[in-house]
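hey m, so remember when u said the tokens were messed up on ur end? i reran from scratch. heres the input so u can diff it against urs
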Amino acid sequence: MAIGAPTPQQDETAPHEVLIEFPDNRLLIDLCGEYDRNLADIEQRTGVQIVRRGNQLSVMGDEPARRQAIEVLEALYDRLEAGRAVEPGDIDRELRMGAAADASERDDGEQLEMFRGGKVEIKTRKKLVEPRTDAQRAYVLSLYENELVFGIGPAGTGKTYLAVAVGVSMFLGGHVDRIILSRPAVEAGERLGFLPGDMKDKVDPYMQPLYDALNDFLPGKTLAKLIEEKRIEIAPLAFMRGRTLSNAFVVLDEAQNATTMQMKMFLTRLGEGSRMVVTGDRTQVDLPRGVPSGLADAERLLARLSGIGINYFTSRDVVRHPLVAAIIEAYEADA
């Protein structure tokens, strides 16, 4: 292995133990995490035991689990050597994807500069975003390769978050002139009544998840200025009628709550130089009884058209709290 990389050494006195040596003890401290919480996370997820011995880590357990744990530790150490921090999400990504994250090499010009060493990375002003599951990785690739993309799956799988991240990255790179984010203003099973304030005050509660995503990628002052200049727009779906959205990155969130006519209206807004993303969860339709979801119709009608990517997520792709995946699976089993 390259100088500075961890070197596995088989301990002959312990056939189920492998020692990994890390040259930089300071990086090893960061790798272990505060109170060794990173090691504890890897132990829990892989079923191995990890013991620190000076500048070495002893990994004990069955061979497949041991190999997975070592690959994760090496990948995280490489990340630290590159000057980047290790966060819980990075551990989760390496455990889920492992070597698959390095499986392909891409060189598709400046628009795909997010590919580095086979890894998929989305650069924004505040953070570097990386897919954490194979489905997320395929989704991000689809967002760059297709002019119209559908992301369909349960809550917590990163459909909207990754779409907004790619939109911000393309905007910052000059590939689009503006970002337009939209949602149907449909109440989730409860009557909210008349909200006070002007039109923005009335619709902002519906749009808050989109503001939350943008705040993760852009500094507050920058975001406020771009919204004031209308280079970033956040508006209800009804406001899209009659517009032609050119040179824009357009996201329709919670698309399962769009009617068939609304979906057709939205999809036909696509203009020259634009990208459009439609995200939704077919199991969380809040439309009145008897009103069909436009997302289901669009999925059925457009599946065979070229230039359109349809990506699916399952409970295995949930990247929120682990209980979210268990809750989704429980409801699916009862359906």
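this time it looks ok to me. The chain has eleven helices and 14 strands. if urs says something different then somethings off w ur setup not the seq
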